[in-house]
UniProtKB/TrEMBL annotation:
Its main location: cytoplasm. Binds 2 Zn(2+) ions per monomer. It comes from Corynebacterium frankenforstense DSM 45800. Zn(2+) 2 binds at C195, C198, C217, C220. Residues 166-243 form the CR-type domain. Its cofactor is Zn(2+). CXXCXGXG motif repeats lie at residues 179-186, 195-202, 217-224, 231-238. This is Chaperone protein DnaJ.
Length: 392
């Protein structure tokens, strides 16, 4: 998400934490919200779904150290009257460093105080106004802020149990990768020179009346550097198109349709700039035995009438080794028994017992069952007594 889209977002409020919260507290808050509002746990609940999405978006920003720093700087600028016209001096900016009413332009663009030029508010205003807007910056700083490689999206399909337990798998990705000849620099010697057009600043200035405007240098694309000995393999771009293999770790508990982000695994940036990200959309196949409800694992186990009436212990499958579950005497058909900690990511195993009625009985079993039925009637048991009362 671009910085300018953060203006109406309060990600700390979306996670229910303060802006001074540590990373672990933010992570715990996100997991709690995600667990309580997961679409699998509250199917059809639009409010819970919206809460889940807001928390996921918030964690993507404040859960990432670099993004959180940019977000906090942006919020601080807004709090001091940044966008919207409330924080700028009447009559606009002057061409001198010191503006009207003692307003210092460099205070906003990273040279006056509070924020550094690198990764700070200068970047933000540069994005909006199309240039750097403030004092001249060195090309080495700007190189780290230059555009990165493209993001890449792909899709995979996992078995239910792979998604529940997590897995690691290889992926083939085609796209721009660092040139092996020049190691991604674009230069045969690996050296770059200051751009002669902008003198290494990365932007050019133009004076229009009382105002000065800046724009990215067309010769160096705003990097402040040029390559004088282009690599013959990549023609000076620093990247070549090829297919590469990477290993992707899918975390335990991923749900159908969820995207997994792998930072820096997208296409390589030109001339050694940062790589983009890889987004893997995960599809999950249904399982013949298990379903899930949030982090709880659900399984239906067929049992006999005798096991429910007399009580018994049955073997139940899990994602790992089977467990023994005790059925109390007199258990009703359809009752759900809970086994703690044998679900997904510490969730529970929910075992629903379901009577399996035999379709064929031999003579001995039929005789025994008739004897039991007679004894049942004589004891006064009526299976429809409560049902008949409920109908009234």
């Amino acid at each position: 998400m671009a910085e300018r889209e953060w203006a109406d977002k309060d990600y700390y409020a979306d996670l229910g934490v303060s802006s001074s919260a540590g990373h672990d507290e933010i992570k715990r808050a996100y997991r709690k919200i995600a667990r309580e509002n997961h679409p699998d746990k509250k199917p059809g609940d639009k409010a819970a779904e919206a809460r889940f999405k807001r928390a996921a978006e918030a964690y993507d920003v404040v859960g990432d150290e670099k993004k959180r720093k940019e977000y906090d700087e942006f919020r601080a600028m807004i709090a001091h009257g940044g966008f919207g016209g409330t924080g700028f001096p009447p009559g606009g900016f002057r061409t001198s460093t010191q503006g009207a009413n003692g307003f210092n332009v460099n205070d906003i663009f990273g040279q006056g105080g509070g924020f550094s030029a690198e990764g700070g508010l200068g970047d933000l205003f540069g994005d909006i106004f199309g240039g750097r807007g403030g004092g001249r910056q060195r090309a080495s700083s700007r190189s780290r802020r230059a555009s990165r490689g493209a993001d890449v999206e792909t899709q995979i399909t996992l078995d239910f149990r792979e998604a529940a337990k997590g897995t690691t798998l290889p992926l083939q990705i085609s796209g721009e990768a660092p040139c092996a000849t020049c190691h991604g620099s674009g230069s045969r010697s690996g050296e770059k020179a200051n751009c002669p057009e902008c003198d290494g600043t990365g932007y050019t200035n133009e004076q229009r009346g009382a105002f000065g405007f800046s724009a990215p240098c067309a010769k160096c694309q705003g990097t402040g550097e040029v390559i004088e000995d282009p690599c013959t393999t990549c023609s000076g771009t620093g990247t070549v198109h090829r297919t590469r293999s990477i290993t992707v770790r899918i975390p335990a508990g991923v749900i159908d349709g969820q995207k997994v982000r792998l930072a820096g695994q997208g296409e390589a940036g030109p001339n050694g700039r940062p790589s983009g990200d890889l987004f893997v959309t995960v599809h999950v196949r249904d399982d013949a035995v298990f379903t899930r409800k949030g982090d709880d694992l659900e399984v239906t186990v067929p049992v006999s009438f005798a096991e429910l009436a007399l009580g018994d212990t049955v073997t139940v499958p899990t994602l790992d080794s089977p467990v023994r579950v005790k059925i109390p005497a007199g258990t009703r058909d359809g009752r759900t028994l809970r086994v703690r900690g044998r679900g997904i990511n510490g969730g529970d195993l929910l075992v629903t017992v379901e009577v399996n009625v035999p379709t064929h009985l031999d003579a001995a079993a039929t005789s025994a069952l008739r004897t039991y039925a007679q004894a049942e009637r004589e004891s006064g048991f009526d299976p429809r007594a409560d049902w008949e009362g409920a109908r009234r």
